[in-house]
Write a structure and sequence with these properties.
With 517 residues, the chain is an alpha+beta fold. Helices cover 27% and strands 22% of the residues. The protein contains 13 helices and 20 strands. Strand 1, helix 1 and strand 2 form a beta-alpha-beta unit. Helix 1 runs parallel beside helix 10, helix 1 crosses helix 13 and helix 8 packs across helix 9. About 1% of the residues have low confidence.
């Protein structure tokens, strides 16, 4: 299509984040005439993935736009020259295209609704999922009982994820093992087996207090259990109501798609690869895409007109639509509002080591993991009041980087310089444990604006006028939360109308050519 001027659409979707891309796919396959816009020249929005050169361009764009114009701020790139180092040769930084760096990496639990949607829509055929392996907890000091031969694992202990792991763990004494088994039995007990005292237990307690008072779990096991919940707050600031169902999700997911793992990531960019596959399938289904084209202004004329919403685009053209859906960063009506948000510090770091010790095969017959999660409690970084730092490490098997290198994705719920200092300290601790051959080649640090699933305000679709809707701010959680799929379904029903059967959401028959490469 050479021009969009004067065209009319059933729905115009602004922004190509994961939620918008899934919505475009669902609507294009139900016969809607879809125009999908993005003010950026690339797909993905806050979930985009870049090469090294593209990351430099992105940093310049974020800083030029300034605060309040994107979900990011204070982005800065650091490069390191190791050509004069006297230690053994290290893998050098490769060409720009050898890297795929995700702005907001997350993984999928195997019982996630998104996996069900990808299967029912047939999109999974263009994706390759790989196992996320061990959870690790950083110890402030190496255990005195451990030998020097254990190397980096003296500083990082694997968090048990099953009863078998508990019995095999050599770092936990028998008393702690009994407490941990008691916790596992408690959390896996079916609701109809619970007695009245358990059913009425106070889950508003801080998680650490709950573990101590209700289950007598020793303090040295509380941070490891917190890591399984992926809470980005301290033990004191994380409620049992938040932590328990997420730990149960973690444990229940292990083994559901294969032995030894409970979560996965998509190869080549994670969530960015999923949304791009959805956009390609949407385009084959009739959706029209226009990158580098944003919405300058829009007017909703009400229900009397067939195409009530008139939009002025950034390229000077005017189009009309029955409905408009977008992110809060892509719709002018949302940009003018005061956004309630959270903010975290993130970093992406390219290092000269495969960090192989983080990716053990945990179960006989299980796959070699390509990703691992490390949690640094605040006290191990010198500040007991600080929330934990999480590092998500990707091996080269993810397609994110060349062989003999790794990508370390870091985040902490403290924005700005303080958060970036914590992230840098955590990365340094990991590389020091690995040895002198492990160094940083390149990194980018930035603040990310969005929401947490435990902020007490469940995200919902916001209605700005009878035919204009927006998704809430992006999630800052480490794991994909099912609320995103729920919101996409909600938006789909709003656009489709009241006569649509909700059970038809993302249930597609095969269409010739739709999923061909």
């Amino acid at each position: 299509m050479d021009t969009l001027a004067g065209t009319e659409w059933d729905v115009i979707i602004a922004g190509t984040g994961l939620a918008q891309s899934l919505l475009a796919l669902s609507l294009s396959r139900s016969g809607k005439k879809v125009l999908h816009l993005d003010q950026n020249a690339y797909y993905g929005g806050s979930e985009a993935a870049f090469s090294l050169d593209e990351a430099h361009d992105w940093v310049n764009d974020v800083n030029q736009r300034g605060p309040g114009r994107t979900p990011f701020e204070e982005a800065k790139i650091f490069t390191y020259d190791h050509s004069q180092d006297t230690v053994e040769p290290r893998p050098k930084l490769a060409a720009s295209r050898a890297y795929t760096l995700s702005l907001s990496p997350h993984f999928l639990y195997t019982r996630s609704q998104l996996i069900s949607v990808l299967i029912s829509s047939k999109v999974y055929r263009q994706l390759e999922f790989m196992a996320v392996g061990s959870w690790w907890i950083h110890s402030q000091e190496p255990s005195q009982t451990e030998s020097e031969e254990l190397g980096a694992t003296r500083y990082f202990h694997r968090v048990p994820g099953s009863r078998e792991d508990v019995f095999a763990d050599t770092h936990i004494n028998m008393k702690s093992k009994r407490a941990l088994m008691r916790f596992l039995r408690h959390i896996s007990k079916p609701k109809d087996d619970e007695d009245n005292s358990e059913a009425e237990e106070d889950l508003s307690l801080p998680f650490g207090e709950y573990l101590t008072s209700k289950l007598d779990v020793p303090q040295d096991l509380q941070s490891p259990l917190l890591s399984l919940s992926l809470s980005q707050q301290t033990l004191q600031n994380t409620s049992a109501a938040y932590a328990l169902p997420r730990i149960k999700r973690h444990l229940a997911s292990i083994g559901s798609l294969g032995p030894g793992f409970g979560s996965v990531i998509s190869k080549y960019g994670g969530g960015s690869e999923i949304l791009q596959v959805a956009c390609r399938a949407s385009a084959v289904g009739g959706g029209v895409y226009a990158l580098g084209t944003g919405i300058q202004s829009l007017t909703d004329g009400g229900s009397e007109e067939q195409f009530p919403v008139e939009l002025q685009l950034s390229n000077g053209e005017s189009v009309r639509a029955k409905s408009v859906v977008g992110s809060q960063w892509d719709l002018p009506v949302a940009q003018a509002q005061s956004l309630s948000c959270a903010k975290i510090a993130r970093s992406i770091t390219v290092v000269s080591s495969d960090l192989a010790f983080l990716f053990p095969v945990t179960t006989e017959g299980g796959p070699v993991p390509v990703s691992a999660i490390l949690m640094f409690p605040g006290e191990t970084l010198g500040n007991p009041q600080s929330p934990p730092v999480y590092l998500q490490v990707h091996s080269s098997d993810t397609g994110d980087c060349p062989r003999q290198q790794s990508i370390i994705y870091g985040n902490v719920s403290v924005p700005g310089l303080e958060g970036q200092t914590l992230l840098e300290c955590a990365v340094d601790r990991l590389l020091q444990a690995e040895g002198p051959h492990a160094v940083v080649h390149w990194s980018v640090r930035y603040n990310h604006i969005g929401h947490f699933s435990n902020d007490g305000l469940p995200p919902t679709i916001q209605t700005h006028s009878p035919h204009v809707y927006s998704f809430p701010l992006p999630s800052l959680d480490l794991a994909f939360e099912d609320e995103t799929v729920d919101m996409v379904k909600q938006a789909w029903l709003m656009v489709e109308g009241s006569e649509t059967d909700p059970d038809d959401f993302m249930i597609f028959d095969d269409r010739e050519g739709t999923f061909d490469e």
